[in-house]
C-alpha cells in the first residue's frame, strides 16, 4: 500500500524585525561617523608606506600649498578657539567683538594675515567659505605669524598635537622655515600627513 505524503506548508518569514535592526544599524553608523574635514586648498601630499593614523582629537593642522602658502586649522573646539583668538589679539594688540569670535569658532582655517583677520571674520559665512587667499598666514624669517598661532594654541591647551600637510611639489626651503620656527618654540613632535603608498615585494 502506497504511503500518503503529508502536505507541505509554505514557510512564512516575518521580516519586520530584520528591517528594524537594519534601520537601527544604519542610524547608528550615520550618527557616529566622523566626516572628513573639507580641505582649505588642493594639496596632494607625498606618498609613504607608513600606516600610522592621526589622532582624532586635539589636532591642529598646518597646510602648505604647492606655491608655499600656509594655512592654519585650529582645533575644532569652539570655546578654546575663542580663547585662542583672545590670546592672538592680545599679542597683536587687537580686540575682537563677540560676533567675530563666533565667526572664528566656525571657520575652516585661518587663511589671512592678522591684519586682515577682522575684515575676513566680518564677511558673510558663504563668502568666508569661498574665500581664496594668495597670502595665507605669513611664515618667513621676518614674520612668523604661523608659529604664533601654534604657540598661542599650546598656551590654551598644552596637549594639542600638530599635523603638517604639504603638497608633493612644495619647495623644501618653505617647509624648512616652518620646521625651524617650530624648533624655536621647542615644539619638536608633530605628524606629517602623507597619502598611502602600496608596499612592493
Task: Describe what you observe in this structure.
- Helix 7 (172-184) links the parallel strand 4 (161-166) and strand 5 (191-192).
- The mean pLDDT is 84.
- A four-stranded mixed β-sheet has the order 3-2-4-5, covered by helices on one side.
- The longest helix has 17 residues, at 16-32.
- The protein has one domain.
- The chain is built from seven helices and six strands; from the N terminus they run H-E-E-E-H-H-H-H-H-E-H-E-E.
- The protein has helices at 16-32, 78-91, 98-106, 114-121, 125-130, 145-156, 172-184, and strands spanning 47-48, 59-64, 70-73, 161-166, 191-192, 195-196.
- It is an alpha/beta fold and 201 residues long.
List the helices and strands and how they pair.
Layout: H1 16-32, E1 47-48, E2 59-64, E3 70-73, H2 78-91, H3 98-106, H4 114-121, H5 125-130, H6 145-156, E4 161-166, H7 172-184, E5 191-192, E6 195-196
Helix pairs in contact: 2-3, 2-6
